Amino acid sequence: MSEALFDPATLRKLEQLSIIASQVRTGAMKGERRSKKRGTSIEFADYRDYVKGDDLRRVDWNIYARLERPFIKLLEEEEDLATHLIIDGSASMDWTGDNIFSHKKFVWSMRVLAGLAYVSLISGDFVAVTALQEGKNLSWGPHRGRAYLLPMLKDLEKMTPLGALDVNTKLREYAMRARRPGMCFVFSDLMSDNGAYREGLSLLQGRGFEVTLIHILSPDEIQPSLEGDLRLIDVETGRAQEVTVDQEMMAVYKQRLETWQQEIAEFCLKRGIHYLALDTTTPWEELILFNLRRLGVLR
User: Fold this and answer.
1) Are residues 70 and 129 in the same domain?
2) How buried is residue 7: exposed, middle or buried, by Cβ count under 10 Å (0-12/13-18/19+)?
3) Which structural domain, as residue segments, surrounds residue 69?
4) Rounded CA gap, 63 and 30, in Å?
5) Would you say 184 and 209 are in contact if contact means Cβ atoms under 8 Å apart?
6) Is 169 in the same domain as 55?
7) At which of 55, 77, 99 does a domain end?
């Protein structure tokens, strides 16, 4: 992943977006992102000097023309937003399958994550990126401002998935340690050893996070092209399982997969968690420019 990830056309589209919270998130300093519940009654409050990383859309160009100095307009009751981008860093996320249009789940998720981070950084929001791993997580930030875009991309390139992971436990730990709740995007295939996730997501909400769960699978996990007597090996634990795959077994698998995703969707709906289930053939920019806008977390 590199700066070339953002071609000029995609950049122009991303720069028109904002991450939107449906609840007020108290910021440490003035910023740009406001809750939708605040309505449209935004009143001018003051000016401050432009600093590197500020969004040029907030510059008062009339003042600049008179004084030849850039100033940023501040608005009443306006606050910045903390954006937390969390990715499952376990070995199962390194899977790609044999679909030529597919990407590794981790790489695909990182591209979406980088796009969301770009939207937040250019808007003056605080951004924190975390890859959950057994033991110590891999982290970047929190940082604020456009100047951090390239350092972020370079650090994200160093993050690689490995090992097993208890997603539920790691989400609980993150919720308890994070200092500034805000918008939280979780990227995971939810394929941890115990399959648990509910307590971790619920605790994030309980600590004041507004959560979006992006459930990402590869095409061959959704529609396996397997048959016959096989020995399947868990990429995270190394455990092996002898199976015979026939039409009946495949029908059972598909039914269980559908039921599993439906249970996740129902849990998220009941808790007010934004939920998207996608596969890695989906263009990453489509998720940002269409799916997340449709959910109302981007505008």
Assistant:
1) no
2) exposed
3) 43-77
4) 20
5) yes
6) no
7) 77
What is the longest distance spanned by two Cα atoms in the chain?
Answer: 78
CA distances from 200 to 6, 194, 252, 277 (A): 32, 13, 29, 18
Residue 130 domain-assigned (yes or no): yes
DSSP state for residue 4 in the 8-state scheme: G
- Work out whether the CA dihedral 103, 109, 110, 114 comes out positive or negative: positive
Q: Which residues are 240's β-sheet partners?
A: 233
Whether 274 and 101 have beta carbons less than 8 Å apart is answered as: no
pLDDT in tens, 69-110: 888 776 544 456 899 999 999 999 998 766 555 578 999 999
Verify that 107 and 168 share a domain, yes or no: yes
Residues near 286 by Cβ (< 8 Å), separated by ≥ 6?
none
Nearest to 34 by CA among 49, 16, 18: 18
Domains identified in the chain, total number = 2
What's the full length of the chain, in residues? 299
Q: Check residue 114 and give its pLDDT.
A: 94
Residue 137 · residue 165 · CB < 8 Å: no
Query: In the structure encoding, which two tokens stand for residue 46, read together?
Result: 């003051």
Specify the CATH number for the domain of residue 173: 3.40.50.410
Are the CB atoms for 184 and 171 separated by under 8 Å?
no
